[in-house]
Design goal:
319 residues; alpha/beta
């Protein structure tokens, strides 16, 4: 990246101030940002300063923008020297930015540089009448119309040494010029005009059949709509026919709920058929506590009665 420095002191103005219209415009730009974020408006304000000061940014404009935004002048200087959209040297009334990147170079940009040197002078200098200056720049994005140049805000494409020299002379003398391709083509079309979609049959309806094709298309659309409606009706009828069948399983659900609770109990909660009941007097006294009840829980009352019966049997004399 080239080193970008401010213009020499002898060309720097002593001061800079926005005019009333631009001052109001700058305040509107600053108001777009929240309090404490005014620095976000630095690029718009530098651009407006460049427009006001004959197309380039002097040191005084950088300092004015810094004061207005509450920024250190060096921070604004960093922005101005980084972006090539800001011109740091005086430029002519018509500032020519000539693309010298590969596509334009292959299409004759070197010859255009020679024209600039002959008509305007050395790069980055202003012609004696103040009308023209030029600078070689990187790709400007119009490669299919190479070679090209941007003059102020307009693109001039498909340049040759002859038409480029004539263009510069017209600008110098204030004559009207036409931006865009300089060889007569429209936009980026091929030279001589487009070569596709030229068959008249593409535009008179014959490609899609002879006769009243509009009426035929209307009938086809109507038939398609009727078929879609019939399909939707058939699907609705089939859905209604299946509805009674789907209600049968719901009717059987209460029957399933009426079955005995014991049938749904887990095996662990049901006492084994051959197991003695905990309250059986023939069981040892500890059986009431060791053997689970039929309900899976120990009944305190039954356990007490079982223990009492066991004590009574122990008091009887043995025969």
């Amino acid at each position: 990246m080239s080193v970008r420095r401010l213009a020499p002191d002898h060309v720097q103005p002593a001061s800079f101030a926005f005019d009333a219209a631009n001052e109001n415009w700058a305040d509107q730009q600053i108001a777009k940002y929240p309090e404490g974020r005014q620095a976000s408006a630095v690029i718009p304000l530098l651009w407006k300063a460049q427009e006001q000061h004959d197309g380039w940014v002097p040191r005084a404009a950088i300092e004015t923008v810094a004061r207005k935004l509450g920024m250190a002048p060096m921070r604004v200087m960093e922005v101005a020297t980084f972006y090539t959209m800001f011109n740091l040297q005086p430029v002519g009334q018509h500032f020519v930015q000539l693309c010298g990147t590969t596509p334009c170079a292959l299409r004759g940009a070197e010859a255009l540089k020679k024209v600039c040197q002959d008509v305007i002078g050395p790069q980055s200098t202003v012609s004696a009448d103040g009308k023209l200056s030029w600078l070689e720049v990187e790709c400007l994005g119009a490669c299919c119309n190479a070679p090209m140049a941007q003059i102020n805000f307009d693109y001039y494409e498909d340049l040759t040494p002859e038409n480029f020299k004539a263009l510069l002379e017209d600008l110098r003398h204030g004559r009207t010029v036409k931006p865009g391709p300089q060889n007569g083509r429209s936009g980026s079309e091929p030279l001589g005009g487009g070569e596709t979609l030229k068959d008249p049959a593409l535009y008179d309806g014959t490609v899609i059949g002879a006769g009243d094709w509009q009426a035929r298309v209307t009938e086809q659309r109507k038939a398609a709509a009727e078929a879609a409606a019939a399909k939707a009706a058939a699907e609705a009828e089939a859905k209604n026919a299946e509805a009674p069948k789907s209600e049968a399983p719901k009717a059987e659900a209460p029957k399933a709920d009426a079955t005995p609770a014991a049938a749904t109990k887990p095996a662990t909660e049901t006492a084994s058929p051959g197991r003695p009941k905990p309250s059986d007097p023939g069981q040892p006294s500890s059986a009431a506590n060791d053997t689970p009840a039929a309900s899976g829980k120990v009944d305190a009352k039954a356990a007490a009665e079982s223990a009492k019966s066991a004590d009574a049997s122990a008091d009887k004399p043995v025969k």
